[in-house]
């Protein structure tokens, strides 16, 4: 972020090299938020993000490496298609393991949580877990690729192209200031203190609106996650004893119908067909849960962490403005003290009208014997030097706050583009999954209807 004292984007190439792109035309498959080529125009809004090209990423083909050793791990094939000139090839690719997906000091959500139950139970090499992890890492890289600054950073380029990625990674994370746990604790503590004792006195309406939108978005995500979590539990929670597992209920009904078929000798075959249809429908429900509901829940949770990262940027912007306001107040206090001393030296009323604090300070100085003019002149010289230093600091803080605000506006626009793309993807996958489920269910029931209709009932 601009204006931050830390090298937040120390690995980012802010201006791409003056080399020709691989392909000036944008492929039709890349149209959408973040995958665009910006046409530079002097009349464009300078606070809008600018894309210099596209970067389409994918994570696939998980492979268990060193399978028979204690150092076993899973590697993924990461590849990309791009026309960004910073890359040496339009189709970079490499194999990376989970711990390689580390991009320090970037405004992106955290990686998928590594401390999962699968790591404790030893099931982290199961196909289901590796596929879920692949999707999470794929989404992580997509967010990097949608960011017009991060997509052309030297660190991202090295991630896809370098044969010595561990060296690049070590250069950026070899000396972290503190471990992740303590960093998170201190961040949360500082946020709490900021919210409890300090408030921005002149809030910008633009950022107040953004914060309200973030609150509403996260509230919607939490409610959606809770709703689909209940649907998942009632449909296929994996616990037949809970009484909430619909797939188990259909399975039990199939067994009961099959048992009834043995008793009704005249319609045994149709009942067996009906029982098989119930089993197929039960399996279809379980399949839909695994391929549609579970990925949706994972995506909703991932979007929530992404929104948390976005919220953190807004909090940091408030802190920058608060730094400026507090420095300005400090400067005003020091200037008032210097003016008070000047008034005393010139024979004016001294602390009159400056409040009880100034009066008490005069009394303390008198007791200490520091109320003579020579002492006051020395103090004024020190205050003049401090005022000059504070004026420079206030100017710097003001420039930093303004620059950080501008960069935050661009970050919010980027987040909005990415959020729209991901919501479209999540809801599209949900719709496709539901359509597939109902089509398959209709086919199953359509096949059994003629069988049932052939049953003759003598009245």
Q: Keyphrases for this structure?
A:
PX_dom; 10 helices; transport; single chain; about 450 residues; disordered N terminus; 3-stranded antiparallel β-sheet; mainly alpha; endosome; Sorting nexin-4; phosphatidylinositol binding; elongated
Q: What does this molecule look like?
A:
The chain is mainly alpha-helical and 459 residues long. 61% of the residues lie in helices and 6% in strands. The protein is built from ten helices and three strands. It has helices spanning 117-121, 127-146, 154-161, 165-173, 180-197, 205-236, 246-263, 268-345, 356-368, 373-453, and strands at 55-65, 73-82, 93-97. It has a three-stranded antiparallel beta sheet with strand order 1-2-3. A hairpin with a 7-residue loop joins strand 1 (55-65) and strand 2 (73-82). Helix 6 (205-236) runs antiparallel to helix 8 (268-345), helix 7 packs antiparallel against helix 8 (268-345) and helix 8 (268-345) runs antiparallel to helix 10. 21% of the residues are buried. Mean pLDDT is 76; it is low at 1-34, 115-121 and 173-196. Belongs to the sorting nexin family. It holds the Pfam family PX. InterPro entries: AH/BAR_dom_sf (IPR027267), PX_dom (IPR001683), PX_dom_sf (IPR036871). This is Sorting nexin-4. Its main location: cytoplasm.
């Amino acid at each position: 972020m601009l204006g931050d004292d830390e090298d937040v984007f120390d690995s980012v190439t802010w201006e791409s090299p003056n080399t020709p792109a691989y392909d000036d035309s944008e492929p039709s498959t890349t149209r959408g938020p973040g995958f665009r080529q910006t046409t530079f125009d002097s009349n464009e809004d300078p606070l809008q993000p600018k894309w210099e090209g596209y970067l389409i990423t994918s994570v696939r083909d998980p492979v268990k490496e060193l399978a028979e050793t204690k150092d076993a791990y899973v590697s993924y094939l990461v590849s990309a298609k791009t026309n960004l000139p910073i890359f040496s090839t339009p189709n970079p690719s490499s194999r990376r393991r989970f711990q390689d997906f580390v991009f320090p000091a970037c405004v992106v959500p955290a990686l998928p949580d590594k401390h999962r139950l699968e790591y404790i139970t030893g099931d982290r090499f199961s196909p289901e877990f590796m596929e879920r992890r692949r999707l999470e890492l794929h989404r992580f890289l997509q967010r990097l690729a949608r960011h017009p600054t991060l997509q052309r950073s030297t660190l991202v380029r090295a991630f896809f192209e370098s044969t010595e990625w561990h060296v690049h990674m070590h250069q950026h994370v070899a000396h972290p200031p503190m471990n992740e746990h303590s960093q998170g604790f201190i961040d949360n503590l500082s946020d709490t203190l900021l919210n409890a004792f300090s408030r921005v006195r002149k809030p910008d309406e633009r950022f107040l609106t953004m914060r309200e939108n973030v609150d509403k978005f996260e509230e919607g995500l939490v409610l959606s996650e809770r709703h689909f979590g209940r649907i998942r539990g009632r449909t296929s929670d994996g616990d037949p004893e809970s009484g909430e597992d619909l797939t188990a209920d259909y399975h039990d009904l199939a067994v009961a119908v099959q048992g009834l078929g043995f008793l009704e000798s005249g319609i045994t075959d149709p009942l067996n067909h009906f029982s098989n249809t119930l089993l197929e429908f039960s399996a279809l429900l379980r399949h839909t849960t695994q391929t549609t509901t579970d990925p949706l829940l994972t995506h909703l949770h991932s979007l929530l962490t992404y929104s948390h990262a976005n919220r953190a940027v807004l909090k940091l912007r408030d802190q920058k403005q608060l730094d400026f306001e507090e420095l300005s107040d400090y400067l005003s206090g020091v200037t008032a003290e210097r003016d008070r001393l000047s008034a005393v030296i010139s024979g004016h009323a001294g602390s009159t009208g400056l409040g009880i604090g100034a009066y008490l300070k005069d009394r303390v100085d008198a007791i200490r014997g520091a109320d003579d003019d020579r002492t006051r002149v020395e103090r004024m010289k020190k205050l003049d030097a401090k005022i000059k230093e504070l004026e420079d600091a206030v100017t710097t803080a003001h420039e930093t706050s303004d620059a950080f605000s501008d960069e935050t506006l661009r970050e919010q626009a980027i987040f909005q583009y990415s959020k729209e793309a991901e919501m479209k993807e999540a809801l599209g996958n949900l719709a496709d999954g539901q359509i597939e489920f109902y089509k398959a269910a209709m086919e199953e029931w359509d096949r059994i209807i003629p069988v049932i209709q052939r049953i003759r009932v003598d009245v």
